[in-house]
Input
Amino acid sequence: MTSFGIGRRTLLGTAGLGLVATPAIIGGQAFAQEGKQLEISRVTPPDIHKFKVGGLQVLVVKDGARPSGAPGDTFGTDQPAETVGALLTENFLPTDQFVNSFSPTLIDTGSDVILFDTGLGKAARTEGGGRLVEGLAAAGYMPEDVSIIVITHMHGDHIGGIMEDGKPAFPKARYIAGQAEYDFWTDTARAGTPAEGNHKLVLANVKPHAEKMTFLQDGGEVVSGVTAMLAPGHTPGHLIFNVESEGKRLVLTADTANHYVLSLQRPDWEVKFDMDKAQAAATRKKVFDMIATDRVAFLGYHMPFPAVGFAERQEMGYRFVPKTYQFDI
Output
């Protein structure tokens, strides 16, 4: 019998079969558009996936993935380990480790190129992450093509790619973020608390762009058809976005649910990285009740790539149903 093992570098750096619009790669350069090129360090570009929501072109990029230890250390932290393990086993998943993936999303309206979150950034590249810019190039977008960056919330895996070597990674973009989220993370009251590390990252990566930033409240509009919804709990100002075009709809749920089994089938269970755990659970149920009732697709930042699917209501939560060809016909 042959044994196959997946190491951390392999998991983070290997692309799958979901590539769309891959450019030719010659001599370490990816030629994304005529007259433009991007230096890359890998022969195989990262996973990307394209689909349409009405008249909008949506692109999902797999910025990276990594093994993340025992699932029960992050999800269901208020539950016995045996209970968490039983649910994983029931869903054909290992009980000793889970894989966390990261899926920044671009929406091209024809007049604006909107990037929702910027991934892990340069710091993750030594382990095969931080591949957003490569993925954009594989689909024909260069950093200067991005006109708007929307920050769903300000955890490091969402804002790590805003800067590159001390300069804006997307030089022509303006920024959109939640007012409550920005105010919380830039407040000096975070110093000396467990939130200090992320506070410093926000000061370095987000605050320098404050003059080019529009701050949204609940119901605020990014562009026509893309509307913010306040979904707090994971962080104080966590935003999700309702996207509608030509009678089609998609909800970008960001980190409302971070595991397709443990967060959805048991939305009441506490999650380590939810700052207000009770509020986060209430938000999960509210958001996914809406998604299940309206029978609309959602895109979750940490869902299995390409991170898009539906939520079917069950007795204790919701079942994740991955997208197939619904947007192709």
Remarks:
- Residues 8-322 form a domain with the Metallo-beta-lactamase; Chain A fold (CATH 3.60.15.10).
- Residues 1-10, 13-34 have pLDDT under 50 and may be disordered.
- The chain has one domain: 8-322.
